[in-house]
Each structure stands twice: as structure tokens, then as C-alpha cells.
Amino acid sequence: MSTSPAPRSRRATDAARAACDVIEMLEILWERGRDTASAVSASQLRVLYSLERADGINLRTLGDVLGSAPSSVSRLCDRLEAMGLVERTPSPVSRRELTIRLTGHGRAYISALRSQREEVLLAAIEAMDPTSRAALLEGLHGFRQAVVADAAREPGPDGDSARPA
Q1: Confidence of residue 158 (pLDDT cuts 50, 70, 90)
Q2: How far apart are CA 83 and CA 102, in angstroms?
Q3: Per-domain boundaries in the chain
Q4: Any idea where the HTH marR-type domain is (predicted)?
């Protein structure tokens, strides 16, 4: 006998829809100001963020973090390496493995992207009234805590708890 999932509250559904709308607006705003010559894909950006958190990992570990096959991750890293954002070096632990690291250019790219995105957000947030800003901050803290708690409950590909990338 299977049980159906618990019904979702109307307010939670409305909040999820509103969050999706905001995310779509942010994607459009962020893409507008992006330099298309040096833009990386969303998948490549996940690689950069993952390496920022765990620089110097091997391809298999990066694949586990991303939930992707090593061959797919290798192709992503090929393109990022061609752009000068990551580098692969021999592993100090095993001659059969390569270590993947962000380059200085990769770190600068992430920093510039974050600054640009923050400026877009700041312009919108400064236009809000103080009460709405305070409510947004409180809501975002609660949202982040829920996401982190949910990720900690779900096992990752290697059996460990997953982390949001």
C-alpha cells in the first residue's frame, strides 16, 4: 500500500511559485550584463563553484560532488582549462590521477561575477521599503537553513551527506 505525499500548503506553493519567478528574473538580469565572450555555462559555473569550495580534487571526486559522470566532468574541465579558468596537475598522491584547481583567472572570474550579480541585487533591494528588506532577509535566512538541512539529510553519490553546490 503506497501513501501519497502530504498535501502542500497553499502558502508554500505560492511562495515556491514566487521564488521561481524571482529566479527567472534574476537570470535575465544577470545575463543582460554578462560579457558573452567570456561567459561560462551554468554547468561550467557549478564546476567553478565546486572547485572554489574544494580546490585540488580529482575528477572522480568532482564528479561525485556534481552528481555527474567523470567523462562529462572531464569535458567540462577541458573547456574551462581552454578558457584558462582551471588547471590540471599531477596528483601528489597518485601518478594515475590529476588534480583540478582554479587558476587565478578562474578565481577572478568568480569574484567579478559575484560583484556584478551583487550590484544587480543591490539596486533592486535598495528600491524596497525597509520593512520589505527586513522580511526578505529573514525569509532568505530561513530558506537557506531549510536547504542546508535538507541537503544534510540526503546521501550524496558516495553515501555521505550531500552539500548544495
Answers
A1: very low
A2: 11
A3: 38-126, 128-165
A4: 1-145
